[in-house]
Amino acid sequence: MKKYKVALFIGRFQPFHKGHLYSLKKCFELAERVIVGIGSSQESSTENNPWDFETRKKMVESLPAQAGLQAMPAGRQGESLKVVALPDYPDDREWLKEVEERVGNFEVVVSNNEWVLSIMQEAGCQTVETGLFNREEWEGVKIREMMRVGDAGWKSRVPKEVLGQIGYTLHG
What pLDDT shows up at residue 166? Predict the structure, then answer.
């Protein structure tokens, strides 16, 4: 029996890498259903946010059935996984209100971002940190830089399912 019915997993996923996959698997160990909130959803075509929301959504949706997530039998992604856009707001309370409106009901927030965790804890939400697994390799900043300079080693740092969504080199 899972501890929670619904977990909210928040990240920018620029790109969705193996560290994110590690955390997503932890979400499914905790909860029957996972809502992935894609932060800074209005951002794209910048150094830190090169991919738009739709591309990041496809990255997440390409994973579950193929990535061995037990809670995601083929054809049931819609029942177990939902992806929502979470745009930035200058005010933390406005951001929290928007998250609650867009996401709906959730019982626990999973994140490794201190800012997200502090807002959610202040609001009285249960939170879980999965830890930054293999951070030296699986960090978005490093992966994006590898892509910019044409280092194909970045491909080993993202799940193979994601490669079809981002299989190009960033220029910058």
Answer: 77
Name the residue type at position 161: E
Encoding tokens for residue 87? 């745009």
So what's the pLDDT on residue 12?
A: 94
The answer regarding whether domain 4-166 maps to CATH 3.40.50.620 reads: yes
Q: What separation in angstroms does the CA of 105 have from each of 5, 19, 72, 83, 163?
A: 10, 26, 20, 14, 32
Two tokens at 27?
Answer: 């979400």
Predicted structure pTM score: 0.86
Contact 119, 16 (CB under 8 A): no
Lookup result for tokens 């999965």: 130
3-class secondary-structure state, position 12: coil
What Å distances lie between residue 162 and 64, 78, 95, 135, CA to CA?
11, 18, 28, 19
Q: For Cα atoms 54, 56, 57, give the angle at the middle one, nearest 5 degrees.
A: 60
Q: Quick check: helix, strand or coil at residue 54?
A: helix
CA distance 91 to 113: 17
Can you list the residues of the chain whose pLDDT is less than 70?
64-79, 132-138, 167-172
List beta partners, residue 35: 8, 82
